[in-house]
Amino acid sequence: MRDRAVLRSGVPRWVLFAAPWAVLGLCLLPRLARPDWGARADEAFAPPSNLRIERDLTYARYGSREMHLDLYRPAQVSRALLPTVIVIRGGGFQWGDSKGFAFIAARLAQAGFAAACIQYRTSGEARFPAPIQDAKAAVRWVHANAATYRLDPDAIGAIGGSAGGYLATFLATTAGAVEFEGDGGNAGESSRIGAAVAMATAADFVDLHPYPREAREVLAAFIGAPLERMNEARRAASPVSYVSQTSAPLLLIHSDADPSVPYAQAQLLQQRYAAVGADAELFTVSGAPHDPWNYVRWFSDLMTRSAEFLHSRLEPHRRQAVGVVQR
Fold it and tell me: Do 285 and 234 fall within a single domain?
């Protein structure tokens, strides 16, 4: 009879049975529809055993909280001081360990750099501008420890992806900005860098319309909520707010199909650099995901481009080898 097939609400029983499966299917559909980007670079390019790697060096302290970095250096020992790159992982400000970008740090060490892969405080521990202060403390640590590890204090760069790219951009654009220095240590040293590579970085948070919902949630956790009432905080957290003629040279690497951070953000940063007469290049990765550096098909090319850019911008400032302690 009809009343056996239809509940009192008028909804057929088969609809109630099928509804949970339909919802599950809608949730899984985006995952199933994602392209297969191929092998992961972090799995395919593990750090080679012949690099000189010193792990968990303390570069900053906040009370009892210690911040660590892993220092990767070329296997071959030379009298020349090493240009040094601060390596900053991504993770939506929710992951900030010194291990996630080990494959990038190792590749840079193979290209002739000392690569300091840093840990930084995440949104769960401290909000903006805490991770920027960490990144600057890492630069100061390089200056303070240059003699010990044969690092060139006049040739310091940075590279990062996603949240790490954002932090690298802040290093490039905020030299001398006291509010971002923090009190992590080595206060007498400079946090100025000579060049940066920023992959998939955000540039402007004043206009939130281009960003997807997930990105807004990340931003709210980073600077505070509700975002609609955080106008000044959003401006202060926007790298474009600090671009000047003295900003460090910047290589922007961005996918034109990035679903998380719009490609237009990279274009905006490049345009702002051009407007003030500063040096910024944009390399477009066609049809790639948000994080192409994480995949074998793009990794080697992006690292080669990054290394060439950093060498070209840092080389004019290189210091000649001096008598220092060899390690």
Answer: yes
Residue 254 forms beta bridges with which residues?
284
Q: What are the pLDDT digits (tens) for 165-204?
A: 999 999 999 999 999 999 999 999 999 999 999 999 999 9
Has this prediction a pTM greater than 0.90?
no
Q: 45 in helix, strand or coil?
A: coil
Confidence of residue 327 (pLDDT cuts 50, 70, 90): low
Report the chain's C-alpha Rg in angstroms.
23
Report long-range pairs for 299-306 (Cβ below 8 Å, ≥24 apart). 299/41, 299/44, 299/45, 299/103, 299/107, 302/199, 302/253, 303/104, 303/107, 303/108, 303/111, 305/251, 305/253, 306/108, 306/159, 306/197, 306/251, 306/253
Total of domains in the chain: 2
Establish if 226 belongs to a structural domain.
yes
Distances from the Cα of 276 to the Cαs of 22, 50, 158, 244, 323, in angstroms? Answer: 53, 44, 21, 6, 40
Burial class (CB in 10 A: 0-12, 13-18, 19+), 157: buried
Task: Look up the domain containing 117 and give its range.
Answer: 41-317
- ∠ CA 62-63-68, rounded to 5°: 45
The answer to whether residues 121 and 96 touch, using CB atoms and an 8 Å cutoff, is yes
Q: Are 96 and 89 in contact (CB under 8 A)?
A: yes
